[in-house]
Inverse folding.
């Protein structure tokens, strides 16, 4: 049985990608949640991940330690991971890879925290540039492949790669056009996304550095967690 | 015929990856070199690339705009792009993806410039951490799959992803252990790498911002280009 190592569901956007992909495609796996903790967790995470980062998939055949490579590993076992059409598949891989190495401002100014709501002080020009590109990319996929998912009728790995963005849009109230907001709602409504958030709400840990990073560019509007004792 | 859009061969590490992969595997393609120029080239690059970045592959079937996705697109046509063994392939994809989203200090403190030599003032602790991980990764691949390339006997996409690092090691005289230095020499000796560097030496452009970035952390030891008129 594959075993997926992930960090806190409240914060870990990278962990969410393979998790939601496998859950949504009904692929069985065990999960191990290792909380970030405060300060460097590199040495602790190195116990199970060669980069000291999550996610990391332990398979019967060996360790697969990068989110995009986990998708490719799974795709060799399950043909639903990527779209069937050659160019839809190429497009989906490009869009997922663009998220993998890009959208730096969106990722740094709006860290994932799927259980709070934040009012941003402002949308910086760099953040707006990321949002512009994001919407252009999503509109292209939804229109070119017919929706309701980015590369066609089925949820595939490219949608999984943008699931953390859906939480970010919800948390920070990011302004998107109608087709993109509808796509965000579609992702948030997925059973696997609802399960992730429910489990996030139950987590006992709060990492101060992560909490503060989420409020660096705005003010707390709502915390959906029950107060700590 | 596939057409690969790239930027200056002197500086463009991302461009080098698919270029050296296709050249080394004897895959035919046309290339279009568009120099970076000074200041923002986003609008100019957007003419041929949806992200405004290079590399970008134009195929008969459509545009493939990310280096890792170009490798996957080519892999569907050519079985030599990735190793044949399942776990060697998974390992190769993880290592390439780690380069795709990581090694940030190595990339920022040692920008690629394959025609000069620079003496670094010092190796910062963050740079040393990147070099430590790099060597661990390379040693693992070389030992586990038997060499002389990272994932076995043949040059595959994972080697292509580390070709820019080989130039960086040469340019900045980065200290690596013996097996890793030997691997760097192996990459630098590839016909495709030698061709890239010869063509870089012939380029007429010098981009001041790029040249200065290469000297930000050290002093010029040698410039292999002929002096400009």
């Amino acid at each position: 049985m594959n075993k997926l190592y992930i960090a806190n569901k409240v914060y870990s956007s990278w962990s969410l990608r393979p998790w939601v992909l496998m859950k949504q495609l009904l692929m069985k796996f065990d999960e191990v949640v290792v909380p970030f903790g405060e300060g460097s967790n590199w040495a602790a995470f190195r116990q199970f991940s060669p980069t000291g980062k999550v996610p990391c998939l332990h398979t019967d055949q060996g360790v697969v330690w990068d989110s995009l490579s986990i998708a490719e590993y799974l795709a060799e076992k399950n043909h639903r991971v990527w779209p069937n059409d050659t160019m839809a598949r190429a497009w989906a891989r490009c869009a997922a890879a663009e998220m993998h190495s890009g959208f730096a401002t969106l990722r740094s100014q709006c860290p994932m925290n799927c259980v709070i709501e934040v009012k941003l002080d402002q949308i910086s020009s760099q953040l707006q540039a990321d949002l512009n590109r994001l919407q252009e990319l999503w509109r292209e996929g939804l229109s070119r492949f017919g929706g309701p998912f980015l590369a066609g009728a089925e949820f595939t790995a490219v949608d999984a790669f943008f699931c953390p963005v859906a939480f970010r849009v919800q948390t920070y109230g990011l302004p998107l056009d109608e087709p993109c907001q509808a796509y965000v709602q579609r992702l948030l409504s997925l059973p696997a996304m609802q399960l992730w958030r429910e489990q996030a709400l139950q987590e006992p840990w709060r990492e101060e550095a992560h909490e503060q990073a989420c409020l660096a560019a705005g003010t707390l509007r709502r915390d959906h967690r029950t107060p700590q004792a």
Observations:
- Chain B has two domains: 3-80, 86-194.
- The radius of gyration of chain B is 17 Å.
- Residues 3-80 of chain B form a domain with the Glutaredoxin fold (CATH 3.40.30.10).
